Amino acid sequence: MIATTTTSPRRRLVLSAFALFAAAVLALLVSLSVAYASVTFIGFAATRSSTGVLITWSTATEIKTAGFRVLASTAPNVPPTPLSRLIPAQGDSFMGADYSFTDRTGTATTRYFIEVVMLDQSTELIGPLLPLSDEPATRLFLPLVVVGR
């Protein structure tokens, strides 16, 4: 004996509507993940020393990220200029990484920024941060912000 099940027309209509809704949601999520990228920062610090200023930052995740640049400004009304070449991204969507850069000419009044460079070459500026003391590091803790997930 073969067991068969029958589905009522109403049940088939509900299942079809749900399948269309699920497909639309999936298409929207895919289009958002293509259009946006994100980096989740968990720390950004600047420490003065006798050899300059050590800038460090850590990420929790890096989605569609080409890398980072360190920028600096000497005053609030002065636009930041690049100090570093592109520092390649080491993290991915599951795991972040730790980064550092030393500014040998940095002072206590230098304002530091991290420029996030996405794979599509769009950028986002994080900062500013001032190196306020030799020890311990001045830290900026950033909120967990996820875009395009």
The CATH superfamily name of the domain at 38-139 is: Immunoglobulins
Low-pLDDT segments: 23-37
Query: How far apart lie the N and C ends?
Result: 49 Å
CATH class of the domain at 38-139: Mainly Beta
Q: How is the CATH topology of the domain at 38-139 named?
A: Immunoglobulin-like
The average pLDDT is 77
N to C succession of SSEs: HEEEEEEEEE
Work out the number of β strands: 9
- The radius of gyration over CA amounts to 23 Å
Account of the protein in words:
By secondary structure, the chain is an alpha+beta fold. It has a domain at about 40-140: Immunoglobulin-like, CATH 2.60.40. It is built from one helix and nine strands, in the order αβββββββββ. It has one helix spanning about 10-35, and strands spanning about 40-50, 50-65, 65-75, 80, 85-90, 100-105, 110-120, 125-130, 140. Strands 3, 4, 5, 7 and 8 form a five-stranded antiparallel β-sheet that branches. The chain has a four-stranded antiparallel β-sheet with strand order 6-2-1-9, with no helix packed on it. The longest helix is centred in the first third of the chain and has 27 residues, at about 10-35. The protein starts with 8 loop residues before the first helix and ends in a 10-residue tail after the last strand.
